[in-house]
Amino acid sequence: MELRLESRTVDGWTVLAVAGEVDVYTAPKLRERLVELISSGSHRLVVDLEGVDFLDSTGLGSLVAGLKRVKEQNGVMALAGARDPVRKVLSITGLDKVFPLHDSVEGATKAP
Amino acid sequence: MTGRGNGACSLEIPAEAAYVATARLFTGAVARSFGVAEERIDDLKLAVSEACTVVMRGGAGSLLVRAQPRDQALGFEVLGIGAALAGLAEEEGTPQNFSRGMAAEMIRALFEDAAIEDSDRGMQVAFSLSAGA
């Protein structure tokens, strides 16, 4: 199972587009990329989840690890484009109140 | 994968992260064959995925995913079989036991009757979907 990760810059934000399934096998790859981006100075991050078909608690763990690191740098990390199954997971765990959530990358990068 | 005359199906996979996606595919296929609604299939796949993670962290060598129709319900179990040569390590940088605890809570949030047991025989996770749910 493949997890695709692509990063780009939009209006001073680093957007990490994630596509595929995020589970115990692929979550470490996501976490590694988030750590790499944050370590290299990307402290305004949007994780685009529109392409994510599945995300479980190990995926959440990777997102939380990224959030923790970016906050240590006084940065911000938002989630965008999460589809209903992913939103449900965020809601069950209460993490929908921890991460800024946006319907789109544009909404995230233009948020006040 | 094996099937039985009583409608039960089971899948045995190595207790390795790469195979958890196979368990989800099996779950989806079985659930569809029983006419489960698509939204609930997503819940079943999530619960089985979480259960596999929980059982793997208990040190199993392989996982048995079992689906069993019962009176007015479809039951799922994930059992650990044998012993792993090496445990599945917690991810660096996340709070201790974060993922394991969250996986268990996720299963319980999705299925009220979820039971997670750790015994001498290994870890076992069981839950069921009521007919019409």
Question: Topology, pairings included?
Answer:
The complex is a heterodimer of chains A (112) and B (133).
Chain A (H helix, E strand, L loop, with lengths): L2 E8 L2 E10 L4 H13 L4 E12 L1 H16 L3 E5 L3 H10 L7 E2 L2 H5 L3
Chain B lengths: L1 E2 L5 E6 L5 H14 L4 H20 L4 E9 L2 E9 L16 H13 L4 E5 L2 E9 L3
Keywords:
heterodimer; A: 112 residues; alpha/beta; 5-stranded mixed β-sheet; 5 strands; 33% strand; B: alpha+beta; 6-stranded antiparallel β-sheet; 3 helices; 6 strands; 35% helix; globular
State the major sheet of chain A. 5 strands, mixed
- What is the count of DSSP helices of chain A, taking H or I runs of 4+ residues? 4
Question: Per DSSP, what share of the residues of chain A sits in E-state strands of 2 or more residues?
Answer: 25-35%
| Mean pLDDT score of chain A | 96
Order of helices and strands of chain B: EEHHEEHEE
Mean pLDDT of chain B: 84
Helix content range of the residues of chain B, please?
Answer: 25-40%
Radius of gyration of chain B (CA) equals 14 Å
Describe the structure.
The complex is a heterodimer of chains A (112) and B (133). By secondary structure, chain A is α/β, with parallel strands linked by helices. Chain A is 39% helix and 33% strand. Chain A has 4 helices and 5 strands; from the N terminus they run E-E-H-E-H-E-H-E-H. Chain A has helices at 27-39, 57-72, 84-93, 105-109; strands spanning 3-10, 13-22, 44-55, 76-80, 101-102. Chain A has a 5-stranded mixed beta sheet. In chain A, helix 1 links the parallel strand 2 and strand 3. Chain B has helices at 20-33, 38-57, 98-110; strands spanning 2-3, 9-14, 62-70, 73-81, 115-119, 122-130. The longest helix of chain B is centred in the middle third of the chain and has 20 residues, at 38-57. Classes of the chains: A alpha/beta (112), B alpha+beta (133). Chains A and B meet through helix 1, helix 2 and helix 3 of A and helix 1, helix 2 and helix 3 of B.
